[in-house]
Design goal:
Alpha-Beta Plaits; 2 domains; 4-stranded antiparallel sheet; binds adenosine-5'-diphosphate; binds magnesium ion
Length: 203
Amino acid sequence: MNMNHHSKERTLVVIKPDGVQRSLIGEIIKRYEQSGLKMIAIKMLLPTEEMIESHYSVDPDFKKKVGTKAIESYKEAGDKPPSDDPETVGEGVMNRLKNYMTCSPVVAMVWQGAHAVELVRKATGTTEPRTSDVGTIRGDYVLDSYSMADSDGRAIRNLIHASGNVEEAEKEIPLWFDKKEIIQYKLVQETILYDVNLDGLLE
Ligand code: ADP
Ligand code: MG
């Protein structure tokens, strides 16, 4: 199978400190595992503030985007945002993320398979758990909101980081894993997921 085949798509998942502290490591892994995706790397580590800064700076527009998203969400809820300038809101989010993401260990993973980025985001749910759909991990297991995080001056606790798109994933993965920590192997179930002719199953 060529290296550009759908089945080779990769995404980074980090179970954030609240996911570890809530004893949800197994439940979270189960959700991705059940979908047919393949875990190709995993480790527990305590990130540094520098790692978190580099991680969220992979997208040079992170602060602006995160600020815009927060301001929209405030308006949708009929609340007044803390500032109307996305960059200002985004700068604050970055500082709060450094606190949040370094308070306890996290579990970092790389998942591979068809549409890995999109499927992991779908199973994870949207950023704000308050409005994440039921059935998603964030919607089912946590209750945080923009307004509560903001009034308490902290990052939204939403259990998981999952790459936003393929380009972001390919930039994030090397920040968390050396090449030799990522294992290329075949899962037996990949035959039924990807094999074109389905031969070799009957005895
Ligand atoms: P996602 O993790 O869903 O991709 P973003 O990339 O937009 O979300 O933001 C990264 C993380 O920053 C979020 O998961 C959340 O923990 C935190 N965050 C985002 N926006 C805010 C905000 N307005 N206030 C506090 N924390 C936020
Ligand atoms: Mg993101």
